[in-house]
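Hey, resending since the last one bounced:
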Amino acid sequence: METLTINKSGTYYLNRPSNIIVKDNIRVTLYLLIKGSSENILIDIGNNSELIIKEYLLNSSLSKEINLKENTKLNSYNALLNKTNNEINITTNNLASNSKINMTYHFLNLKGELSLNIINKYNDKLKNIDTYQNSIIYNLGGISNIKPIIMPNSKNIKAEHSSFISNLPEEEIFMLMSRGIDRKEAEKLLIHSFLLNRENDQKVLD
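The structure tokens again:
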């Protein structure tokens, strides 16, 4: 697999997977689209850098490992539309102190078996680490499971996670239907909003 080295702040668009190296002292927004494949990706975030990932997957499996160094921020929004059997494995390695991680997963499973496994690892004696996971799968016809694993080894690590698997929320469908929208169209609107327009659900990183 190719390796993309980023040494300037800015926004980057990738229509094929690659390993990514983010150099020190920059702020990067990365859009990544993966369709119908199985990929392994390694991402290194340099000292004093921030990486914002907006990742969209269609019927794909993914193993992604992210290494964070001193005073780094990772803000990751991930959306998946699934109709086959797929597994998503995400591992973050906190290698130094003063890092902040915010990971949001909005997955829609229409068919097949879908697994989401998230592991946050921390080196010994780290300080000022803030980790947040938020995972939601709307299961509309397949089998879904989420395994969020946070492995803090110090009282100086703050870690939170939430995981949720359900059908589309009936209260939101009812609200749209009460305004004259039929059920099928209401479901389409909710799916569109869920997959594409909810980056703001993420926790704000100071």
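The chain is about 10% helix and 55% strand.

Sorry for the duplicate.
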